[in-house]
Specification:
about 0% strand, membrane, 2 helices, transmembrane, mainly alpha, about 60 residues
Length: about 60
């Protein structure tokens, strides 16, 4: 694949991490209750996406 493809995929992964983070913050506000399971799983997904995004950006140059 071209380096530009890795860069675009890395950007998409980081955007996904941002979306998960926003959803984690909004969930307790919308439902008026805090669910630690949702919060911890959201952190895990966001960290995974950040790791994937950084790896792809490094591979792309």
């Amino acid at each position: 694949m071209k380096p530009g493809t890795f860069i675009e995929l890395g950007k998409l992964a980081l955007n996904g991490a941002l979306a998960v983070s926003v959803a984690m913050i909004a969930q307790p506000l919308v439902e008026n209750k805090f669910d630690p399971g949702v919060f911890l799983s959201g952190i895990a997904v966001a960290l995974s996406l950040i790791g994937i995004g950084v790896t792809l950006l490094e591979k792309g140059g």
